[in-house]
Amino acid sequence: MKKKKTPGLIVLLTDFGLKDPYVGILKGVIASKAPEARIIDLSHEVSPQNVAQAAFFLRASTPHFPQGSLFVCVVDPGVGSRRNILWVKTRQHQFLAPDNGVLSWIEDPILESRTVANRRWMNPDISNTFHGRDIFAPVAAQLIQGKPGHLLGPETVKTVSCPWPKTLLISDKIAGEIIFIDRFGNCISNIESSKLRGLRFKREPQIFFRGKNLGPLRRHYAEVLKNRPLCLTSSFGLLELAVREGSFAARFKAQIGEKIECRWN
User: Fold this and answer.
1) Orientation of helix 137-144 relative to helix 22-33, angle to 10°
2) pTM value surpassing 0.85
3) Do 207 and 194 meet the contact criterion of CB atoms below 8 Å apart?
4) Fewest beta carbons within 10 Å, which of 49, 113, 125, 252?
């Protein structure tokens, strides 16, 4: 007897929060249409309408999920407008997301991208304010049960882009910026720590924020005294500014987009 194939994994990423019923409704629609589907919550605490933050969460998370996972990203400031919804297939995963740049930071090469247009896969009545319930969830349920993505709609060539913030190498200095602040107040930059050691300089760089020297890269938080600032490699492989047993963001009132410099002079 042939063993029945287990449906793949649906990974939810939204800015819905957990106070309201929106996440539960999203899961309820999926469970109604694909009762054997497995669902994981990546996060529902993306800051409201923060497309760049959602893009970072996807970049940081997708490598750690099994092949074939379907990421459903509903961070959608343009809900109800003429913006498209995309189905994207990469070498490892599938994605459902609004065409607003949220998929721009995925590093896995894209193999196929289509506009979601097949109304038969959606709820009969579509609200202008809750496409998560009426489009994303029922479409995800169809995909996770093996329906082929090419049935969704036409291929897309040009989509909205939200480019990864570039670092700047000038002489003996690399300039980057804060791109994410976690709940501990740690400030994550766009500077890859591995690249700091791959340059021609033999000595360790000093990290500067607002002109203040935070010292060299540390291996872990306990290398400095309590309440002292430090720099280290985050779990994402990116340069992180932190305060031991404290909040760098609160201490310095740091904001996303603020500049960081790594200097060798």
Assistant:
1) 40
2) yes
3) no
4) 125
Is the pLDDT score of 5 beyond 90? no
The H-or-E segment that residue 242 falls in is strand 238-243
Give the CATH number of domain 9-151: 3.40.50.10790
State which H helix or E strand residue 215 sits in: strand 212-215
3-state secondary structure of 77: coil
| Of 264, 148, 132, 254, residue with least CA distance to 202 | 264
Q: DSSP letters along 28-47, please?
A: HHHHHH-TT-EEEEEES-SP
pLDDT tens across 224-249, in order? 999 999 999 999 999 999 999 999 99
Instruction: Give the homologous superfamily in CATH for domain 168-263.
Output: Bacterial fluorinating enzyme like (2.40.30.90)
Type and span of the H or E element at 193: helix 193-196
Domain boundaries, the chain: 9-151, 168-263
pLDDT tens profile 132-191: 999 999 999 999 999 999 999 999 978 898 888 888 888 889 999 999 999 999 999 999
